[in-house]
Every structure is written in structure tokens, then in C-alpha cells.
Amino acid sequence: MKNVALIYPNKFKGGISCLAMHILHHHLNKYRDIRCDMYFLENYSQIKNRDAIIITLQYENDYFNVVKIVEKLKNKNPEAIFIGGGPCSMSNPLPLSDFFDVFVIGEIESTDIMYRLINREVDVEGTYFPEYHGKSKENFKSIKRVYPKKLGIEDYPINQFTHPSGAYGKAYLLEIGRGCPRRCKFCMARSIYYPPRFRSLEDLTYLVDEGLKHTDADKVALIAPSVGDYKYIVDLCKYIKERYNIQISPSSLRVDTVSEELLEVLDIKTLTIAPEAGSERLRDYIGKDISNEDIERALEVAKEKGIDGIKLYFMVGLPTEEKEDIEEIISLSKDVKKKFRKVSISINPFIPKPCTEFEREPFNMESKATIKYIEKSLKRHGVRVSYENFNSMVIQCVLSRGDASLGNLIKEYNKPNQLLKYLKKKGLLSKYLGALE
Ligand code: SF4
């Protein structure tokens, strides 16, 4: 029997809402000779004498926790193989290459990758062993990503553990599809989960029936990069509503997929949309492909359906951005506020992520001032403006594009601000933020 610890390197709240945790837990416990338990930031320190420790790498800013976790568990688990997986593992695991034996580059369903790694096999497709392959970008890029051509139901975690403190509440996570048919040039999800694969309506209704039978969820959270692009989204939502009369919560919807029928059945109070850029010109340039008319039409539909709150997501510091594009974020938000009672916008800096068409673009440090300017301009118009801590966005950029030399620095300066200060002092920041050759 192999004893495996599966860790989410942040709080329980996020981990229990992370589908990857449920998928891995379900996948591994199907093997008769594997026992896999889940852990989170709150309880990982009790892990000892395991054969394998798997950490899911969902966000770059978790790397500080990841390094602490690995350092703490190495001695208490001398026989364990340390395995990293998840989106950051697929896009660029180099900053963590000193801390893991192996990274999985791809999706594990319908494969025996995890099983073979836990059993110490080394010649496994879709895996990157930094010590063996080498720790350069070229070495890493030579690894071929693996993924199932079709998403089956046999590997789906029906028996999900739910909890009211989860990020989506007590929700059953229903993955409609993986990969996105759109072509936004800044989007990492699009490239690392390519090609888009949606589940059949028949499979999804089966997964809803079984999931709601086996969990005590009081809502269904629809998971997909672009939920509204699913051909049978209305049929699926109608099925859930009519059969279970339960709340359905979609992640954000593309405005061009918002329809009367869909809003009717979703029964939401706030519509969340992500124009990303204020002007149509910039939206076209970044591949977002949403016209002003699309936005207007979605807002009209929302109004008709009695929705009184709108949340808009924007990015600033995008390639080719001009002052006019920023002014259009402000005027669009003001226009929306004239029509809706509650309007909030979330603005964050554009981060040139690896594996995207914009991966070589620079990170714009002026974005901080731009965000403040937008906030100031909208304050007196009653639009709520929120944004992430700017320094942690800078560090996210550094880590997402970083190399193996960052590993030691993460360990030594184990907080984002401290690492940032060091990189600034040593004049290293531009190496990670500037335009790439
Ligand atoms: S629609 Fe969303 S998920 Fe799809 S490519 Fe664009 S940003 Fe990415």
C-alpha cells in the first residue's frame, strides 16, 4: 500500500473549491494499493512517512507557501517523492525546480501517470524531472504535454466533499468542459488546456444526478473557462433547475453568450462580465472579440431580467494601450452605473503569462498609477473599484516568467514584498518584467 498526501498550498476555503483536488483524490483512491488523503495550509504539518507528496500548483503567489511546505515535510517524509502538478506546473515550474522531484505536464485522467510516478517509475510521458532533464526553459519546453482527447465520466469525482466555507459555498463542482474555443491573446488557460473539450449533455446530466445524490450540496457551480460557449448550456441549466430547483452559479459569462433564456434559468442577482479592455479597438487587438454592441445587448437583457448588479473585469497595461482606452473604461463604467443600482469593477494589471501570444510583452509598472486614476475618476459616480495588491501582481509576473535561480530567493525572502525589495535592490526586476527577446 502506498500512502499519498495531496496538498493544496493555501487555505481550506480555496482548496475545497478546487476541482483538481477532487479529481486527483478520486483518481488515486481508485487504485486498490493507494491511499490518498487531502491536506491544506491549516493541517499539512501533520503529514509524515508518506510515499508520495503531491502539491497542486494553481497560482504563482502560492509558491512561498509551497517552498515552506516542502522544506518542512522533507525530513518527516524521507522516502517520499515530491510531485507538482496543475496549471503552473504546465506553464513554467522552473522557479520551483529545486523543490520537487518531478512535475506533471498535463492532465492525469485516463492515464496512469500518477500511479507510475508514485511507484517510482521514471520513464513516464508528460513528466518533467528537473534533475534529469535540466533546469532551463528549453529543457522544460521539450516535454510534451499529455491530456485526454475526451473527458470521460469514469474519472469524475462524484463524491465531492462540500463545506459552507468553500469559495463557492456548499457547491457541487460540475466541470462542463476544459479548454476554450476563443482566442484571447493574454489567456494562459486557453493554451495549457488546448484543445477545447466539452462534455455531452447526457454525461453532464448523469454527473448532476449522481453528484447531488452523493453530496449534500445546495448549489451547482459550473466550471469551464467559458461556460456560455457550451452549446447545451440552457438545456443543462433547465434540467438542473427543473429537477432539483437548486441554485446554479456560473463563473463569469462572455457578454456575447448572455441570453434571455440563460439569465432566466440562472436566476442570478449580479451579472459578471469581463470586457478586459475599455475600447473596442483594444479588445479586438487582444483577441477578446467583444463589440460595444455585444456589451449593450447583454446589459439590456440583464435589465429586462431584473438583474440589479453588474460586475466588470478589466485589465490595464495591455500592449498598445493608450490614454483613450483608459478613458473608455471610465466612460463604460459610468454608463453602466446609470442603468444599474450596483456596479463594481475589478481592475488588475495585465501580466504577460508564459504559453500565451503575449508572453514576450513587458509588464507595465505604470499600471499602478492607472488603476488609482480609474478609481479616483469613478469614486464620485458610485462605482465600486477593487484591485489586487499591486506588489503581489508584480511578483506573480516574476514567478510566472521566472527561472530556476528564483528558487533560493523564494526560500530566503519568503514573502512577496521581501522578494520584490531584493530584486529591486539588485536591479533584477527588469529581467523578469521587461519585453523578452
Ligand atoms: S474567453 Fe476567457 S478562457 Fe477563453 S480564451 Fe478568452 S479569456 Fe481565455
TrEMBL record:
Identify the CDD domains for this entry. Radical_SAM
InterPro entries recorded: Elp3/MiaA/NifB-like_rSAM, Radical_SAM_N2, rSAM, rSAM_horseshoe, rSAM_sf
Tell me the protein's name.
Radical SAM core domain-containing protein
Query: What is an example of a GO molecular function annotated in this UniProt entry?
Result: iron-sulfur cluster binding
Instruction: Name all Radical SAM core domain ranges.
Output: 166-388
Q: Origin organism of this chain?
A: Methanofervidicoccus abyssi
